[in-house]
Amino acid sequence: MSYPIASSLLDGIVLAVVERESTYGYRITQDVQKVLEISESTLYPVLRRLQKDGCLTTYDEAFAGRNRRYYKITDHGRAQLRQHRIDWQNYRNGIDAIFFGG
Amino acid sequence: MNRSEYMAALRRALSVLPEEERASALRYYEEYFDDAGPENERRVIEDLGAPETVAGQILADYRELTTVPRQGAAASGAPAAPRRGWRGINPWLLLLLVVLAIPIGVPLAGAFIGVCAAVLGVLAAVLLSVLAFVVVIPLCLLAAGIVLCGISFVLWGAPANALVTLGCGLMLFALGVLVSLLAIKLCTLFVPPVFRAFVALLRWPFDKLRSRNQGGGVQ
């Protein structure tokens, strides 16, 4: 069974993935697809939005004779991610209490 | 569909986006194909789904961030309904209002016209009677004086009677001349202003309407 993923949760997941190391679109998609059933087209709008909100920046690095665009988390993005972690903790505790008894 | 066809279709579907946004999205998917490698090209195309769907996601997200021209809706399949602003009144609605107003409006208009006609009639009667008095009284006095003078010539058999009648006739004639002069003086003094006031009264509703229209035009 899979649950529909709220866009704010997806934001948090992408921020957490990029926080571990600066990375590129294909890798981020692969990493998220390991745990969530998302289409390959899901993440571009998320990355673009996080970039516009100032949570992520991009830089280009040469790779195999071409430029690859990397995403890097900003201080603002880290602050957002902290809030996502707190929100998720609260959410999970609430669901756990119902599922498994508090 | 191969990679280049897929990217061409995506470019077309994103044509409503600003150049910078479209270039960013296209670059992302070009790199995506590069990073997936040629051996995964078919799988990536299958997993991404129709280029129009991918573009629809990008457009929907972009529209959330900014105000995008409404023609973006055409790309995602929803026809943009033409917005009818309330600038000016719908002519059909106006017609309906006019039709509905007839039962109330016609008697009201009739009453209004009747009142106006009555007021004008009274004014005209007053003016005419004043004119009549001004004209008729001096004329009567003059006529009476002339008649009495004429009668006095017949009465010379009794000279005293004739003299009294002649005197009265001359007096009435003189009074008639005086009243006539007075009436002429009064007319020259009062007729033009009264006439002007009458014209002004008739023009008043039209001036009112015109000034209101001009006031509305200034806004």
Number of strands of chain A: 3
**Helix share, percent of chain A:** 55-70%
Which runs of chain B of at least 5 residues are low in confidence (pLDDT < 50)?
A: 68-82
Order of helices and strands of chain B: HHHHHHH
| Sequence of secondary-structure elements of chain A | HEHHEEH
Number of DSSP-assigned strands of chain B: 0
Oligomer: heterodimer
Mean pLDDT of chain B: 82
Pair of chains with the largest interface and how many residues each contributes: A-B, 20 and 24 residues
Rounded mean pLDDT of chain A is 92
List the defining traits of the structure above:
heterodimer, A: 102 residues, alpha+beta, Arc Repressor Mutant, subunit A, three-stranded antiparallel β-sheet, 60% helix, B: mainly alpha, 2 domains, 0% strand, rod-shaped, transmembrane (chain B), DUF1700 domain-containing protein (chain B), membrane (chain B)
A few lines on this structure:
The complex is a heterodimer of chains A (102) and B (219). Chain A is of the alpha+beta class and 102 residues long.
Describe this structure in words.
The complex is a heterodimer of chains A (102) and B (219). In chain A, 60% of the residues lie in helices and 18% in strands. With 102 residues, chain A is α+β, with helices and mostly antiparallel strands. Chain A has a single domain, classed as Arc Repressor Mutant, subunit A (Orthogonal Bundle). In chain A, strands 1-3-2 form a three-stranded antiparallel sheet. Chain A is globular and about 55 Å long. The two termini of chain A are 24 Å apart. With 219 residues, chain B is an all-alpha fold. Chain B folds into two domains: 73 residues; 110 residues. Chain B contains seven helices and no strands. In chain B, helix 1 packs antiparallel against helix 2 and helix 6 packs antiparallel against helix 7. The longest helix of chain B has 64 residues. In chain B, 11% of the residues are buried.
